[in-house]
Amino acid sequence: MVQVNISCLNGKKYVQNGENVSLNCLFSSVDLDATAWFKQTPGEKPLLIASTFRSFAAVYHNGFDKSGRFIAVTEKSTFTLNISNTEASDSATYFCAAAYYTDIALSDCTVLVLKGKSTYLQYNLIYSLIKCLSNDL
């Protein structure tokens, strides 16, 4: 039986706009027939990003190779999807699929690309804390 697991804390990954993100899909078997990455945004059908057959290089689908930001790499029992220079439109649920004969396994991870800067959030938190403390004086 094939098992698939994506390294994704609590099913979600948060990244800042413009950062790079890697989704690592780990397999229980190295002798797989096929692997694939899909992207699904709410209310839409899943889109096939890239697929591999046995030890061949990844083949890209649906224009995901055009920007050069999506790179799929296979190494032994890992199929990694690298997304560089993330954009808000990259926020989606990504599925990794693996097949061995008729046995198919699927795992998912939701990637959320945050538009704001974390320094802005820290500034607001510090400002609010100072304001509260000054009201107590």
UniProtKB/TrEMBL annotation:
GO terms for cellular component: plasma membrane. InterPro entries: Ig-like_dom, Ig-like_dom_sf, Ig-like_fold, Ig_sub, Ig_V-set, TCR_complex_component. It is found in: Cell membrane. Signal peptide: none annotated. SUPFAM superfamilies: Immunoglobulin. Pfam families: V-set. Keywords: Cell membrane, Disulfide bond, Glycoprotein, Immunity, Membrane, Signal. GO terms for biological process: immune system process; response to bacterium. The keyword Transit peptide does not apply. Residues 1-107 form the Ig-like domain. PANTHER family: IMMUNE-TYPE RECEPTOR 5 PRECURSOR-RELATED, T-CELL RECEPTOR ALPHA CHAIN V REGION-RELATED. This is Ig-like domain-containing protein. It comes from Astyanax mexicanus.
